[in-house]
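Side project, low priority. Logging it here so it doesn't get lost.
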Amino acid sequence: MTRFNGEILRRLIDEAGLTRPEVAAATLLSASTIDACIDGRMGNPSMKTLLALADFFAVPLDFLVGRCDKEQAEKILKNYGECFMELRRAPFEAYLHGRKGTIGKNLVGEAPWPYNLLNAVFPNLKIDDTVSKEHEEEIIEAMQSVLSPKQLKFILAYYRDGKTLSKIGKSAGLSGERVRQIITKAQSTLTYPPQSSILLYGKDISNKNSEIKIMEIRVLEKRQELARIQEELDEKYKKILEAQTYLYEYGIEAMKMVEAISDAVAVLPPVPEKKIVNTANIRLDDAFLKNQISQRAYNALMRFGCKTLADVVDIAKAGELIKIRNLGRVSTRELLAKIEELTGKDYFGVGNNPTR
């Protein structure tokens, strides 16, 4: 039984300038299958695998399984790099940049011009109607009206003529990546009316069929918008549920804390009420003898004419303590603190009184 020739597959991949993962992605095969075929661990691949590889590289099955002589194989491989660029590279680059019209469609079935362009410009629509010669000319006219000469030239070379990005760039003195950027920008321009309608339906868009298709596009756009809004609402609802769960758990913890505080307060001894002293009954000499005011404060207050602490309170209430001669800021603060202690009233910062 003829076994699969892994060396031939390896050389095909190398000559095409691809990587194994790229071939796996383009043929819809797994990377492990490609590796097993090349390494000889899969001597007899399935017919599905063989057909996918033969279709992609545009070679006969006999060539893959080694049923042609060495001279024929060398002849094919000698010029295969150049052949691959013409046969498969352009649609493969389109595949890599996400410009396939139908998900899951094999690379070999890449749509021909102008459907490949339409699928690239309108990826959410399935463009499968027959484009007449007149419509094709209208597509080119529509592009001429909105695209620069360079953009039009690159799009036609890529989609209509099947040239690769690198080949287009080489003739224009640009890199393949720069060519891709120019083509992508041009495609974005074509998505806006009226050129978008001409690309899809031609100039005659007044007939019923065109109106229905336009409505289908609008319905699709609305559905996509509604899906996006629904997704946002679902996300917000999820956050609301998370917040409710958090608040519920937080509320339970808060209730436990309140109960604990209430229990603690219940066993605390009652706070004794502070007795407010009648300063009118406290003479300055008594306060001095009991060390409630300093010698300096006593002398200054007596010279000022104060007899009781009530007199001192009145001056503090008016914010004039600091004006008493020889009292000083330190003694003033001591008196304000003593007044607050005896009466519960705070006169710091009142009027000209010093702050704490």
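Brief comment: Confidence is low (pLDDT under 50) at residues 99-109.
Revisit when time allows.
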